[in-house]
């Protein structure tokens, strides 16, 4: 069966998008050789040169690798994070869509005083009450993300529901907070695992980490929630972000 290519972008870009989606959906399973250039060209009705260009781009991204004299294979441990404000922090779904089995462990959750860095993110005095949740996300039993979420206590519904600390931040804000998220700021930086993080993430002390700090701003442009996401550096990541206003 031939999959048609609509020539709005360059042909190689369209092929690249199609193959990327197939890899993400598990059409080409890890450990199994992908179709050869000639076969893909015949299926898509394009030239081998266009297929070769698309494969080269995917290899540069780390989504595939080539074995000399053997063929092309999907890269192992590709964890793709795609998000938009309305679905921000839905890590379990992203793990599932990458073809792996998600698991969530809540390490601690509840009301507590804000730490200094959290207070700075939320623009509140240190020690002011926040709802804090720390969760460990696993893929096929291996830790892939440590997520700490904090929400300003001011504006929360009283009394809080018994399962409030188990909710995802956006769900909680939508249902039990007077401030609704309207926009988001995100900061990325590299870090090294200390002993505590290395133990939780099952990695070596000093190993590289990817850290993403997100701050949700309310309709008054003031911070209402913040989240720090820590990813072990031995994972393969592709991150695609579409930032839109949360309604």
> Considering DSSP H and I runs of 4 or more, what fraction of the residues is helical?
25-40%
Q: Which structural category fits the helices and strands?
A: alpha+beta
Question: In CATH's first tier, which class of the largest domain applies?
Answer: Alpha Beta
Oligomer: single chain
Report the average pLDDT across residues. Answer: 81
User: Based on DSSP secondary structure assignment, what is the total number of beta strands?
Assistant: 10
Return the CATH topology of the largest domain.
Chorismate lyase
CATH architecture of the largest domain: 3-Layer(aba) Sandwich
Count of the domains: 2
Order of helices and strands: HHHEEEHEHEEHEHEEE
Residue share in β-strands: 35-45%
Sheet having the most strands: 6 strands, antiparallel
Task: Using the alpha-carbon principal axes, give the shape.
Answer: elongated
What is the H level of CATH, i.e. the homologous superfamily of the largest domain? Chorismate lyase-like
Structure annotation, total helices: 7
| Poorly predicted sequence stretches spanning 5 or more consecutive residues | 78-88, 242-247
Q: Can you list the strand order of the major beta sheet?
A: 4-5-6-9-8-7
Describe this structure in words.
With about 250 residues, this protein is of the alpha+beta class. The chain folds into two domains: about 10-75, Winged helix-like DNA-binding domain superfamily/Winged helix DNA-binding domain (Arc Repressor Mutant, subunit A, Orthogonal Bundle), CATH 1.10.10; about 80-240, Chorismate lyase-like (Chorismate lyase). Helices cover about 25% and strands about 35% of the residues. It has seven helices and ten strands. The chain has helices at about 10-25, 35-45, 50-60, 90-95, 115-120, 170-175, 195-200, and strands at about 65, 70-75, 80-85, 100-115, 130-140, 140-150, 180-190, 210-220, 225-230, 235-240. It has a six-stranded antiparallel β-sheet. The radius of gyration is 21 Å and the shape is elongated.
């Amino acid at each position: 069966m031939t999959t048609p290519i609509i020539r709005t972008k360059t042909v190689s870009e369209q092929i690249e998008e199609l193959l990327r989606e197939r890899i993400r959906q598990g059409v080409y399973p890890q450990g199994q050789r992908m179709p050869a250039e000639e076969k893909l060209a015949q299926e898509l009705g394009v030239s081998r040169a266009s297929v070769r260009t698309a494969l080269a781009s995917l290899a540069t991204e780390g989504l595939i690798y080539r074995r000399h004299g053997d063929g092309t294979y999907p890269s192992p441990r590709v964890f793709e994070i795609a998000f938009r404000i309305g679905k921000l922090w839905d890590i379990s779904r992203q793990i599932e869509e990458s073809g792996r089995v998600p698991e969530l462990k809540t390490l601690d959750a509840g009301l507590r005083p804000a730490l200094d860095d959290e207070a700075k993110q939320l623009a509140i005095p240190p020690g002011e009450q926040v709802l804090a949740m720390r969760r460990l996300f696993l893929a096929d039993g291996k830790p892939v993300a440590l997520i700490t979420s904090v929400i300003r206590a001011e504006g929360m519904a009283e009394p809080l529901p018994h399962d409030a600390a188990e909710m995802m931040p956006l769900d909680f804000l939508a249902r039990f907070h007077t401030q609704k998220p309207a926009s988001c700021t995100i900061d990325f930086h590299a870090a090294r695992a200390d002993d505590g993080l290395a133990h939780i993430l099952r990695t070596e002390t000093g190993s590289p980490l990817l850290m993403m700090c997100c701050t949700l701003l309310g309709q008054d442009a003031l911070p209402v929630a913040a989240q720090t996401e820590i990813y072990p550096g031995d994972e393969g990541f592709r991150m695609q972000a579409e930032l839109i206003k949360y309604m």
